[in-house]
Amino acid sequence: MSTASCRSxxxxxxxxxxxxxxxxxxxxxxxxxxxxxxxxxxxGKERIIGGFSTGIVYGDGRLGNxxxxxxxxxxxxxxxxxxxxxxxxxxxxxxxAISPGGVEAHAVARAQPVVPFDLGYSAAxxxxxxxxxxLPGDYQxxxxxxxxxxxxxxxxxxxxxxxxxxxxxxxxxxxDLQRAAADLRSKSRIPIQRRGIERGMSLLMAAERPWAAGLxxxxxxxxxxxxxxxxxxxxxxxxxxxxxxxxxxASLSVVLRAHLIETLIRRGTPELVFWSGCARPLSRYATxxxxxxxxxxxxxxxxxxxxxxxxxTQPWMPRSIAADVRWMTGAELTSEPPLSLQPESDHQxx
Length: 350
Hints:
By secondary structure, the protein is of the alpha+beta class. It is built from 9 helices and 17 strands. The strands form 4 sheets. A 7-stranded mixed sheet has the order 11-12-13-14-15-10-16, with helices on both faces.
C-alpha cells in the first residue's frame, strides 16, 4: 500500500482543500487556494509522503471543478492562485490533474511567464482517468445497449437477489453508510485501509449533494454499499464496497449497479461518472475522460537538486514508495501536453 496521504480539510464547494482563516474577510480560505473576484477560489491539498510534508500542492481538476468561480473568471482565478502559491516559502511544487485543452491548461500556459516555474506534462495513468457512462431515458434501452452476456448477468443476478428476499436501499443516510463501510471493509476482496474509508467519508460529508445506496440482506445486514455525489446533472460514483467473501457468487457489484443505474435513469440523470475508472463489465461501455498530469516546480537550485538526486535513486527504492517518488520528482516529462490528448475533441458525452 502507498504511504502517501494528503493534508486536507473540507469545503462545501470542493472537499479537497487545506484551509486557513482569511485575515481579510474573517471567513475560511484555503492555504492552497486564493480568493479572487466575486469570492472565487481555487482548491488544492498538500501531499504527505511517509509522514513528511512535501511542500507539494495537488489539485484535481479532471471533472472541471478545480476552480469555484464564475465561468468568465476561472482562468484568471487559477493564474492568481498559481502565482500566489509559489510566493509561499513552504510551497515547492504544484501537481495538477486536468483536462487537456481546457481552462486550466490555458491558465497554466499563461501563468508560466508571470511566476515563473519549471513546467512539464505527462499523460495521466489509467487509474487517474475517470470514466463516463451515458444513460439513456429508459432502463430497458440501457440493457439493450449492453452485450448479450452482460445483459444476461444484469438481469439474472438482480432477479436472484430479489428472489432471495434482499432489498435495495436507494436513499442511504451517510451515518448508516459509514457504519456499513466500516463493517464491509474486512469482507471485501479489494483491500482498503480504514484511513481510506475515513477520508472518503469526510469527502462525502463535505459534498453539497451527496448520495448513497446499498444492498441489504433480508436479515438486516449490509451486503454492499455505494456512494458519491451529484455534480450539475451527472452522478459521480466515488466509493463501493461489497461483501465478496460471504457472497462470492452473488455478483453484488453488478446487482447494486443495476439498481443504481435504473434509479438514476428514473430521475433523469444523463450520465454516471466512475471515479478513477470503471472495472468490468461496464468498462466496455464507459468512456475514459481524457486527462493529463501537469508538473509545476519552483526553479530554485536546491529543489532542482533534490528532485534530481531523489529521482536517480528511485530504481533502488521499495515499490511501496517508488510511485510516490516518481510523482514527486516528475520523471519522463515533456515540455508540451501529450499529442495523444490534443485536441480536446472528446469532451462530449459518450
